[in-house]
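ok so i was messing around last nite and threw this chain in just to see what happens. nothing serious, just curious
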Amino acid sequence: MTSQPAFEYVLGSSDPELQRLGRQQAVWSEQTEAWLDLLELPASGAAVLDAGCGPGEVLARLARRVGPDGHLVGIDDAPRWIEVAGERARAEAWPTTELLQGRLEQVGDDGSLDGRFDGIFCRWVLSFPPDPGALVARFARWLRPGGRLVVVDYNHEGVSLFPRSEGFAAVIRATRAWYESMGGSTFVAGDLPR
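result:
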């Protein structure tokens, strides 16, 4: 593991957030498998990055896909998530796993990740940084020829409740403002094709 200055995940890294992320993964489990299929990883020995890996919910699924000869890399800002993912990797005997704590915008500045991955998975991450396009360009450098990047992220345009509720609308406005105050965007999915 390498370490860079700590950066606190905008939603925190508390025990309740760890539990929420576990519940979120349970809800999105089937769809996540379909998204991971899009990586089209080799049957054995793939090198895969989970960009913004959190506590390792998706890394656990990737571990099964790459097999014993595979190589997993997880990168996350939050030191606690790297710690939790490391504990899971040891407890569940994942294949070779490298966990890097730091900002995606800074890790690999030395070129050490260039051309290294058969696949990169990035779920619900690009809505947080101020320049998601620069991260996508960085990810492209990190892929091997023929490698695949799969990004899953937000477009809050469809968040609504019927019948309309001013309280619910206020929560949505506050959530969007919160992301923006941290330099992110709740509408990043609409910008990703560019």
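not much to say yet. The longest strand covers residues 143-152.
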